[in-house]
Amino acid sequence: MIVLDSAGYAGPTADQEFGEAEAELLRSDLILLVCSAINAARHADRQLLNNINALFQRRFHRHVDV
Q1: Is position 59 within any domain?
Q2: Which of the chain's termini has less CB crowding within 10 Å, N or C?
Q3: Total number of domains in the chain
């Protein structure tokens, strides 16, 4: 089990950090993304989810249900 607690993923190094996490994401059986319901950072949350979805589409040529 890998638990990643991020202070945020919309900063200037977000793409680099996502790239470093790709291998762990691809090895995962389950990915649970927990987002704040009261925080206004929904765009960043949606972008991260889109990036994860795109990663699996590229790698496995299939759509990931979200």
Answers
A1: yes
A2: N
A3: 1
